[in-house]
Design brief:
By secondary structure, the protein is mostly helical. It has 2 domains: 48-269, Orthogonal Bundle (Fic-like fold), CATH 1.10.3290.10; 271-357, Winged helix-like DNA-binding domain superfamily/Winged helix DNA-binding domain (Arc Repressor Mutant, subunit A, Orthogonal Bundle). The protein is built from 15 helices and 5 strands. It has helices at 25-44, 51-69, 76-84, 92-114, 119-130, 159-173, 179-193, 200-214, 226-231, 233-246, 249-288, 295-301, 309-314, 320-332, 350-357, and strands at residues 144-145, 150-152, 306-307, 336-341, 344-349. Strands 3-5-4 form a 3-stranded antiparallel beta sheet, sandwiched between helices. The protein has a two-stranded antiparallel sheet with strand order 1-2. It is elongated and about 75 Å long. The termini are far apart. Bound molecules: adenosine-5'-triphosphate (ATP) and magnesium ion. The site of adenosine-5'-triphosphate has 17 residues, from strand 2, helix 7, helix 8 and helix 10. Magnesium ion binds at residues 70, 198. The active site is at 194. This is Cell filamentation protein Fic. Residues 117-258 form the Fido domain.
């Protein structure tokens, strides 16, 4: 049966594609670049002493970018504050972004422990993103519209759909071709299966970074393609359709490899900036406030852009009274900025915040 955008695409071929892009020189040229950039990022990230410093900061950025694709706008500042404040009323957009972050972090932990990608994990990601535990694989037909016309109808629910998602899981866990090429194939396939009623885009983007961790191309889930996809959204959608309608895999794979290459370079620059700033801040506190200096204190200021008294107490850096004195000293040094939020007081690491904002 020929592909018909208005009919459920039950003939969506199983993985791997029967196509000889495996020999494509263009793919291999791009592949070597992407692999090099990714390896450099993987090699460099351990300079950041505490993985939470990268995770908390970059993940929130990703969560925001990924959710923007779904038109959930929420400003960086609101997000970071929501992360630090316990009593803040969170609006729906901020909540969605925090769900995304939670889904990513939680699934990374599970994958690290179990070392297999299974259907439960995929469903769990979807559920956390949607803030539900009731729904799973969809039982109804859904369609993809571009605002004007129906561009794609994924396979029908039931046996057909289950069969394809099982094939996806099997292929994810197999060792066959180069893992970066495979990530591109898996991403196309996942979105084409469209296993859920909604949230397939976000779930699929989380699966990309998890896959890189699963295949040991990264130790931490810090390569986020959402920004790139968002910035090249029209091309991304066009290339999807090219695979479906004309079996044109080569361009799609190159697009995804390029996304990896550029994003790895961007992230590496971020990692370096965070590290430089961390070192600099250490020197300032050591030099100008040696009586309050401890490695743990400065490290804490980098675990997320906002800090508060209770964080110092929880990390056993200082008692309540001393903690507030410490933070005020850091305000006087120009490192932190004090902000009152209702009855809570939070302290912003100004320069870290600027580093994170820069795109
Ligand atoms: N022609 C297409 N064929 C297959 N998949 C597509 C096509 N066009 C878009 N997609 C995928 O569908 C996703 C949107 O699906 P869905 O609305 O379920 O996910 P979402 O997470 O809610 O949205 P978004 O990805 O926009 O944030 C897109 O992100 C894209 O990955
Ligand atoms: Mg949606």
């Amino acid at each position: 049966m020929k592909f018909n955008r208005k009919e459920p695409y039950n003939d969506l071929p199983l993985l791997p594609p029967k196509q000889d892009f495996y020999e494509s020189l263009n793919i291999y040229k791009m592949l070597s670049k992407s692999r090099a950039s990714l390896a450099e990022l993987k090699g460099r990230s351990p300079i950041i002493p505490n993985p939470l410093m990268l995770i908390n900061t970059l993940v929130l950025q990703e969560a925001r970018d990924s959710s923007t694709i779904e038109n959930i706008f929420t400003s960086n500042d609101k997000l970071y504050r929501a992360f630090a404040l316990t009593r803040m009323e969170k609006d729906i957009n901020t909540k969605e972004v925090l769900y995304y972050r939670e889904a990513l972090w939680h699934s990374y932990q599970i994958l690290k422990k179990n070392k297999v990608m299974d259907l439960d994990l995929v469903i769990n990601i979807f559920q956390v993103i949607k803030g539900t535990n009731k729904e799973g694989i969809r039982k109804n037909q859904v369609w993809i519209d571009n605002g004007l016309i129906r561009v794609y109808s994924p396979p029908e629910p039931g046996k057909v759909l289950i069969n394809k998602i099982k094939n996806w899981i099997e292929y994810e866990n197999s060792n066959s071709i180069d893992p970066l090429i495979k990530m591109a194939l898996l991403h196309y396939q996942f979105e084409s299966i469209h296993p859920f009623s909604d949230g397939n885009g976000r779930t699929g983007r989380i699966l990309n970074v998890l896959y890189l961790c699963h295949k040991n191309l990264l130790d931490l889930p810090i390569l986020y393609l959402s920004k790139y996809i968002l910035e090249h959204k029209i091309e991304y959608y066009r290339l999807f359709a090219e695979v479906t309608e004309h079996n044109k895999w080569e361009e799609w794979i190159i697009f995804m490899l390029k996304a990896v290459d550029e994003t790895a370079k961007f992230t590496l620059a971020k990692v370096n900036s965070i590290y430089d700033l961390f070192k600099e801040t250490q020197e300032i506190v050591k030099g100008k406030a040696s009586d309050i200096y401890s490695y743990e204190l400065v490290e804490l200021l980098f675990q997320q852009p906002y800090c508060k008294i209770s964080f110092l107490v929880e990390h056993k850096i200082a008692s309540r009274n001393t903690a507030s004195r410490y933070l005020n000293r850091l305000v006087n040094l120009g490192i932190l900025e004090r902000k009152e939020e209702g009855r809570e007081v939070i302290y912003l690491n100004k320069r870290l915040y600027q580093v994170l904002l820069k795109s």
